[in-house]
Amino acid sequence: MTVPRTTQGFASGHVRFVGAGPGDPELLTLAALRALETAEVILHDRLISTDILALAGPAAQLTETGKTGFGQAMKQDDINARIVAAAQSGARVVRLKSGDATVFGRLDEEIEACDAAGISWSIVPGITAASAAVAAIGQSLTRRGRNSAVRLITGHDVEGYADHDWAVLARPGEVAAIYMGLRAARFLQGRLIMHGADRATPVTLVANASRPDQQVLATTLDRLTDDLARAELSGPVLTLFGLAPRTAEILLPALDKERA
Length: 260
Description:
Elements: E1 15-19, H1 30-38, E2 41-44, H2 50-53, E3 61-64, H3 76-88, E4 93-97, H4 107-116, E5 121-124, H5 129-136, E6 151-154, H6 158-161, H7 166-169, E7 176-179, H8 185-194, E8 202-207, E9 215-220, H9 224-231, E10 237-241, H10 253-259
Helix pairs in contact: 3-4
């Protein structure tokens, strides 16, 4: 099929897969804002901020799709069916996903459901959580002389998580952005140490990146699970392996004092 351009008009019976960015509405693209303002049906992830949802047009019907890591979740087949049904009713549909819709968002399954039903669609990219998290600590994901590549990894599915090339990731200078990896932190720590990673390798966790309640925990691979147990991070967490905040400031001062 010919993929519709996101700059074209928002037609009835059309689905736009929109990246909502990491949470700060100032980080929405103009295309995402226009899609929200003109959508008639918005099917959104649970983690979309209320500030972003408030930008929807007054007549838009908002439905949370309710995916929760390791907990209650709407089945993907049910989400697909809702997208298709809304578009077949003739509505302008926005499927609103956290971060960038193309990164760990099950986008392909939803596109395939649209294709099977003969529904047109387009994609509006957004700022992914890794970009927001690394900006929060004043770093870059790549740096000349350190790493020319960065790995984007999901820790949500531990079975798939085990298949990564841990020996490569354990080499000095490697950098990875780990999505949904909070509950798999002990597994991550064990695998990397088992494959020879330096225990002093910096690890930074950013919760609620770009939002008013953003938290930053700077630790090391060796101290990762112990510090996490005391930090009580809440909300979506992005783990940056191999990166420390550029400044010495740690935005969890109570934990910093405890270490001292």
